[in-house]
Structure prediction request, 173 residues.
Amino acid sequence: MKNLILEGFMGCGKTSVAEALSKELGIPLYDTDTGIEERSGLSISEIFERFGEEAFRDMETDELKKLTGDEGCKIISLGGGVPVREENRMLLKKLGRVIYLKAPADLLFERLSKKEEGDSRPMLKDHDLMGRIKSLLKDREGAYLAAADLTLAVSPDMSVEDVVFAVRKACGI
Prediction:
């Protein structure tokens, strides 16, 4: 089996679904944001504050390059902006099967408006939340679709287990 890679906007459920898939399938989990934090010794917010978005995006690309040399199958959860770079989309195609968890703006707003979520997301800081979500979604949608092998619509009534089931069914696993 190839790596299963989950992409999508912040708050769409990538991390939760990846954790559940990893546990259910007995396949190791790799989260690119966690990898960056562990390697740098800094939180994503600290990286943005100290070095800026471009340096963070470079770190994301480095994470993907590192993963292309790894052996074995993984469930990979991407940071929300990873597919924006064309180089990253090409690396993702080499890495495995990319599944776009597509969630509507109102669901993302509901999830990201929780204080602990919004405070930890540098791309949302100091912005009108719904306006920022809609703007970033518009900017990123083409990249998400270009990277994806499969798109799954995530709705407010779906549990993590429902999304895991949909991923497994769509991938035939």
In short: The mean pLDDT is 91. The first helix runs from residue 14 to 25.
